[in-house]
Specification:
The protein is an alpha/beta fold. It folds into 2 domains: about 220 residues, Rossmann fold (3-Layer(aba) Sandwich), CATH 3.40.50; about 80 residues, ANL, C-terminal domain (GMP Synthetase, Chain A, domain 3, 2-Layer Sandwich), CATH 3.30.300.30. Helix content is about 35%, strand content about 25%. It has an 11-stranded mixed sheet, with helices on both faces. The protein has a 4-stranded mixed sheet with strand order 16-15-14-17, with helices on one face.
Length: about 400
Amino acid sequence: MALEKNLMADTEKFMRTYPPLSEAEALEQLNRQIARIRAVSPFYARRYAGLSAEPLSSLEELKTLPCMTQKDIVRGGKQLLCCPPGQVRRMVTMQTSGTTGAPKRLAFSDRDLADTADFFREGMRLLCGPGDRVMIFMPGSHPDGLCDLLSRGIRGFGGIPRVYGPIRDYADAARVCQAWMPEVMVGVPVQIRRLALTAPDLRPRRVLLSADYGAPALFQTVERVWGCQALNHYGMTESGLGCAVETPVRDGMHIRRDILLETLEDGELALTTLRRQAMPLIRYRTGDLGEILSGGILKAVYGRKAEREQKLSVCRLDQILFACDPVLDYQAGIRDGCLTVAVAGGRAAETAAGKALEEAGLGMAVKVYEDENVFSDGVHKRSVRTEEG
């Protein structure tokens, strides 16, 4: 009961110091943003040329504006920029698929980066306090990158961050943690699960899982093995890295106050950046499937929309295989109707995975074999490779 009261108090403090915008506040910021980008961005001037110049009268009217995709970012290029080039502090270039290999580039100003660091500060304050050690097993260790902004946020309330980066050697990561004894860890779901199974004697109080989809079975394994609380964070480069963070009372993921998230008719999440200075996005299709509750709460993210058309998604496989402790990691592909799964964890993993997949009744032939070289790098998105003969 005392723990529950403390968790509620922490969440209430978060809501006081980082309250969601009221509908009136969000609408005011949205109209201000739209007016600004129509005036300064050639891309948005063309895109909204046939639309009324009158301000939106409600957030519901946001649905009358066209959605954006990654193709728009690629093709728009510098014409999407809404500030002088000299105000761009960081430019992120990411390779895309389905756009003839052309990269998409996203620009961020000093204020944009500061807004993300502020969100990280308030979100991480839910997980830890002054003097708590936070081990960061995330990619993006360059200046003004994810780890830098997260570290700034943690230091903002007196926490002590330490950047390890994506795990390449689990024995080494375990040794570092045993020596430093972090109260909190932040990392990629599949890597944190493997670390927990590799080093079950570690005892972080909480872990925050981010950067990739995490199946319920994965969260349950981390919590059971370490006796900790595993919480979820949803974000992407397009959102400014941070977007929504789960609170310890597990009432969903609270969306940062300078972002609007909506669920489109097909279940895809679309985001709108209300304060983004350098390169705002309006109704950007994220490619992720999710569900939003009232009050600015993201209930859940269910994986990638593109996987819905596949014979078998990595989300479903994760739920099956990550419920098996012997399976430390896996890679999967489908060829000519046969699912082939390589598992790390020795013969025990091979046996456990084979049994779990058979019981799942996938409706296709399955081949499982052990391969200790199977390794999720914590940087690239995981998927089920599909090939035709």
